[in-house]
UniProtKB/TrEMBL annotation, chains A, B, C, D:
Domain N-acetyltransferase: 5-150
Pfam families per UniProt: Acetyltransf_1
Listed SUPFAM superfamilies: Acyl-CoA N-acyltransferases (Nat)
Annotated signal sequence range: none
Organism: Parasedimentitalea marina
Record-given protein name: GNAT family N-acetyltransferase
Keywords from the UniProt entry: Acyltransferase, Plasmid, Transferase
GO function terms (MF aspect): N-acetyltransferase activity
Length: 150, 150, 150, 150
C-alpha cells in the first residue's frame, strides 16, 4: 500500500470528486441516477449521522481515487447494530494498490468505534475483480438476495 | 389460502407465540440467542416505529403460525427508503397453505403504505423450501453476501 | 423404501415404459427430442456395453416408475474410468419413496462392479427437489458448467 | 493474439513440456498425481483416437505455454457425440495473450471436424481468471456438479 494513501470521511469540498467517482461506480452497474438522488445522497453523507449513510474517500497523493458508503442499522439477532457497506469503488487506474482493501478496513474501524462488530456487503456473483479482494478480507456467506420491486 | 388466515402487526399479548415461532425459526439456522436479545427485539418490534424493526404475525383460526420481521432503511440509490425483510417463518405444519406468501405480501403492503417501492431479503442458497416460494413471488438477483465479523 | 421396489437393467420389453418415463423427464427440461434420437438412445442402452450409455429402470410392484442413464468414460486424472449419471428420473407420483436414491445406488454399484470408484452428475442450480436428495447422498462440488453450441 | 501463437496436437517429443504444464495446472487444483497416471494419460493422448482423450499444445515462438485435454463421448440427447474439455491451462506468464481462447477454439474446431457441435467444460465457481475468459467465449449454464467417491 502506498504511503501516500489516505482514507478519511467525505467532506463538502469533495463534491466534484465524489460525483466523478460515484458516477464511475454506478456505470459499473449500468446505472444512472437523477440529479435529485445525487443531491440527497451527498447531503446525507455529510451529516456524519450514525442513522444515515456515511462516506469515506480514498486519496493517493491528494487525488481522490475511491469511495465507500456505509450505513449502521438495526439487526434483530443482536442488541448492537450491524454495518452495511453499500458502495465500494476504487478507480480502475489504481487497482492493485490496496485502495479497496483500505476502504473496507476504514469502514470496519468506524463500525468498531461505534461498537458494531459486523460488516457485510452484497456483490454480483460475477464481479470477479471485487471478489478476488473480498475472498481475502472477508467470508463469503451462503446467502443470496431476492427482491420485489413494486 | 385459507379464509381464516390473518396477517396483522405483532402485539404485546403475542409474546409467548412470538418466542415460540422465532425460536423455531432460529433453530433452522442452528442459532440460539440470549434472553437479552429476545427482550430487546420484542421491545423494538412493539414500537411500531418506521426506524426500527417491525413485526407481523400470521394466524390461522386464531393460532399463531408465522412471523415476519422487517426494517425500513435508507438506500443511497434512491430518495425513498427500501425495506429489508430479515426474518420470515411459517410453521412447517402449515407449509403449503400460503402463510409465507401472505406474510411477504403483508410486508410489501406496509412498505408501499410508507411510499417504499422495493423489498429485499437474503436466503441461504440451499434453502430449497424457501426458494420454491421466493422464485414465484420475487426476483432472484445475482447478488451474494460477504461479511466480516470482528 | 418399499419392499416391492426393484432396480434392474433396461430390457427390450421396457420400451413403452422407457419412452413414457424419458419423455416425462425431458419435459422437466422443456425438451422434446426427435424420434431418431429415441431410437438411437434405446438401441445403445440395450447394448450392455461399457463404452455406451447403460440404463436402469425402477419398478414398484412391477410398474415402471423411474430410470437412470449412465456412461462410463475416461478421466485423465486417474487410470480408472469415471461414471457420468446423465439422466435420473422418478415419477412424481412416487416421490419420497426412495426411487431416486435407489437408482443412484444402483448406478454406483454397477460402477463399482466395473472398478470405477467415482460417480458424478450435473443438475440445475434451481432443481430443488433433486438437490434435496443429492445433498443427502452425494457431495456438491464447487464446479459449474460452461458450454459452446456451434 | 501473437502471430507466433500455434495450436497443434500433442506429439511424443512434447513429453517434458507437457509434464511441466500439466503439473502446473494440477497445482492450481492442489492436486498431485502418481507417475502411473502421467504415463497412462500421455500414452492415451498420443493415440489420436476419437474414443480417448486428445491433447493440444500451445506454443509461442516455439515455447510450449499451454495445453488442452478433451474427450469426445456419447450424449443420449443427440445422435452425435459431445466434446468434454477436461483440462485447459495457459502459463500465467502469458495470460492475456489469447492462449486460453485459442486453445478453446482449437478444441472447438476439432470437435466440428468430427461433426460434434457442442463443447462443454466445468470450472470452479471461484476460478475468476478462467471465468473472465469463459464468459466471453461460452455460455454459463445453470448446471452444478454433484459427485460420489466411493
Amino acid at each position: 500500500m502506498s504511503e501516500a494513501l489516505v482514507i478519511r470521511p467525505l467532506r463538502a469540498e469533495d463534491e466534484a470528486d465524489w460525483r466523478r467517482l460515484w458516477t464511475a461506480y454506478l456505470q459499473f452497474y449500468d446505472t444512472t441516477l437523477p440529479e435529485e438522488v445525487f443531491q440527497t445522497a451527498f447531503s446525507r453523507l455529510l451529516e456524519q449521522n450514525n442513522r444515515e449513510f456515511q462516506g469515506l474517500i480514498a486519496t493517493v497523493d491528494g487525488v481522490a481515487v475511491g469511495l465507500a458508503h456505509f450505513l449502521f442499522h438495526r439487526t434483530l439477532w443482536a442488541t448492537t447494530d450491524t454495518c452495511y457497506l453499500m458502495d465500494l469503488f476504487a478507480d480502475p487506474n489504481v487497482r492493485g494498490q490496496g485502495v479497496g482493501r483500505a476502504l473496507i478496513e476504514g469502514v470496519r474501524q468506524r463500525a468498531l468505534a461505534a461498537d458494531i462488530p459486523s460488516l457485510y456487503w452484497m456483490t454480483q456473483e460475477f464481479n470477479y475483480p471485487g471478489r478476488t479482494l473480498y475472498d481475502k478480507v472477508a467470508e463469503k456467506t451462503p446467502f443470496i438476495v431476492y427482491e420485489i420491486n413494486s
